[in-house]
Structures are given as structure tokens and as C-alpha cells.
Design goal:
It comes from Actinomadura parmotrematis. Keywords: Zinc. This is PIG-L family deacetylase. By secondary structure, the protein is an alpha/beta fold. The chain has eight helices and nine strands. Helix 1 links the parallel strand 3 and strand 4. The longest helix is centred in the middle third of the chain and has 18 residues. It starts with a strand and ends with a strand.
């Protein structure tokens, strides 16, 4: 057990699927850049291992940005382009968008159906989603859109995507057979992280992905590197990893 202040984190998951067992992986996030802040280093390790990774962004991030002079009507298109560029930095070429409004996301039946549709299309062994729970120690990652995306994605995993009688139009009209996702990883500072990935070797690619989101990160300048390195260093120290290592943390949920 490694402690920092009053916090204690224990590695408890022993049945995480080995990457060699994973053929396809679906990432579902609320906004462009969410996956890159939370897990781009890990995504790079997956694509390096030959895993096919697909990104599904629920919104276009049209409420983001820091430049008041930039035309608001053009923000969605810019952020889609930024996410595609960021994805390439970590080996992902299939990036999809649902186009829900940024900042107003709710875990509706329509959203569950739309995520279940993509699950049945991609047929992933593992999914990466935001945590549906609020973290009171780190409130920023618990954006309402993140929590809504996580809740809808988890409901789409169970029961929607695997139940052939849920959203019957997906099978009847679109020919999409039911699919069971074997494992879900949650990011966005889940309250009970139980697994980590050492991303020291892929850190620069993570930074390049984050820099691709210039509308969101350019104002940070060189501070972006220090900020992200600080987060990942703190994770590694809390986990008891050797000095100089960097880690991303997750809550893994078996879902067979």
C-alpha cells in the first residue's frame, strides 16, 4: 500500500485481460481531448501492441476554446480536426462523432442507443469510458458531460449492446447483432482506481496528442508539459513505481 496524505491506493484487480487477448477496443468520450488528457499514453501502448482502437466522441466540443475572436460556428469543425490529428499521434485512424451538444449532455435512451449501435458495429473486447461517478477530491475531471457519457456508455455495455431485444431496430433495420464487451476501463479520475499503465515510453506521444488540441492547450505554453508530467509522476509515486516513471490510472470493471 502506498499512501499520499490521507489517500491510499491498492492494486486490487487481478483478472484484467492481457492485451494479447484484445483484438478491438472502443473509446467513448464526451469531448475531443478527453481521451488525450486521461489515457493517450495508454492508447499508444495498445496500438503498439497491434490492437485496433476506435474513438467515439459524443460531442464536437463546440463549447470549448479560449479565444473570443474565433468564430463560434467554426469551433465544432476545428475540434473534430484537432481530435483526428491527436488520434494519429497515438496510432488511431478511426474517429467518429455523434454530434450531441457540448455542455448539455444527458444519459438519455437515445444516447444509449447510439453508443450501443457503435458497440455492435465495432464489436470491441475492451472499452475505455469516463467514470460516471463524481470524484470529490478532483472535481474538474467530473464534468457533467463526462459523467453522463460514462453512465450512458456503461448502460450501453450492459444491458443494451448484448441484449438482442434492446433497441430492436438495431437488429431489425440495421442488421447489427448483439455484442458483449468483456471489460471496461474508466478514466476521468474514477474515485476507486485499481489499475495503472506505465506510460513513460509513450509520454511524448501523449504530449503531441494534447498539443494537437491547440484551441484547448495552446494558452498553456510550456506549462502543459510540466502540468501533465506532474499528474503522471504523482500517480507513479503513489503506486510505488521507480523514480522517473509516469503512470495513467484507471478503474477496471469486468463485464462478461
Amino acid at each position: 500500500m502506498i499512501s499520499r496524505g490521507r489517500r491510499h491506493r491498492v492494486e486490487t484487480v487481478t483478472n484484467v485481460l492481457d492485451d494479447s487477448e484484445i483484438e478491438r477496443l472502443l473509446v467513448v468520450m464526451a469531448h475531443p481531448d478527453d481521451v488525450d488528457f486521461g489515457a493517450a499514453g495508454t492508447v499508444a501502448t495498445w496500438t503498439d501492441a497491434g490492437i485496433e482502437v476506435v474513438y467515439l466522441m459524443i460531442t464536437d466540443g463546440d463549447a470549448g476554446g479560449f479565444d473570443d475572436a474565433f468564430p463560434r460556428a467554426e469551433m465544432a469543425g476545428l475540434r473534430r480536426d484537432e481530435q483526428r490529428a491527436a488520434a494519429k499521434c497515438v496510432g488511431v485512424t478511426d474517429v467518429r462523432f455523434l454530434g450531441y451538444p457540448d455542455g448539455r449532455l444527458e444519459a438519455t435512451l437515445d444516447l444509449r442507443r447510439d453508443i450501443a449501435r457503435v458497440i455492435r458495429q465495432v464489436r470491441p473486447d475492451r472499452m475505455l469510458i469516463p467514470s460516471p461517478e463524481r470524484n470529490f477530491e478532483r472535481i474538474a475531471p467530473s464534468h457533467p458531460d463526462h459523467r453522463a457519457a460514462g453512465a450512458a456508455a456503461l448502460d450501453a455495455v450492459y444491458p443494451d449492446a448484448r441484449n438482442p431485444y434492446a433497441f430492436p431496430e438495431l437488429l431489425k433495420d440495421e442488421g447489427l447483432e448483439a455484442w458483449t464487451v468483456r471489460e471496461v476501463w474508466m478514466t476521468s479520475a474514477p474515485p476507486n482506481p485499481n489499475h495503472h499503465v506505465d506510460v513513460t515510453e509513450t509520454f511524448e506521444r501523449k504530449l503531441n496528442a494534447l498539443r494537437s488540441h491547440a484551441s484547448q492547450t495552446a494558452h498553456l505554453g510550456d506549462g502543459l508539459t510540466d502540468m501533465v508530467r506532474g499528474w503522471l509522476t504523482a500517480n507513479a509515486l503513489e503506486l510505488g513505481l521507480p523514480e522517473g516513471r509516469l503512470a495513467e490510472t484507471f478503474q477496471v470493471v469486468p463485464t462478461p
